[in-house]
Design a protein that fits this description.
By secondary structure, this protein is an all-beta fold. Helices cover 0% and strands 52% of the residues. It contains no helices and eight strands. The strands form two sheets. Strands 1-8-3-6 form a four-stranded antiparallel sheet, with no helix packed on it.
Amino acid sequence: MASSKQVLVNSTAQIIVEAYGENRRVVLHNSNDHPCYIGGSDVTSSNGMQFPKDTNLDFLVPIGSVLYAATAGANTTTVSVLYLEP
């Protein structure tokens, strides 16, 4: 069964996909005016993968892995997360 949530992302690294007991496919959507950056717990605008505004990213997240997001500076954005069955 699919489920979803929205996360308000700012310049502090925040969990957007939690660890799970099996591989998990997720679709992320950055719906606001600012890009954000995807990575590990230390993600910043300098070391993360850029996630431009108004785009989707499709990930297969491995067992026990966590995805984090952060923005540059004082910007904020909303990331929608759609969890799909593996």
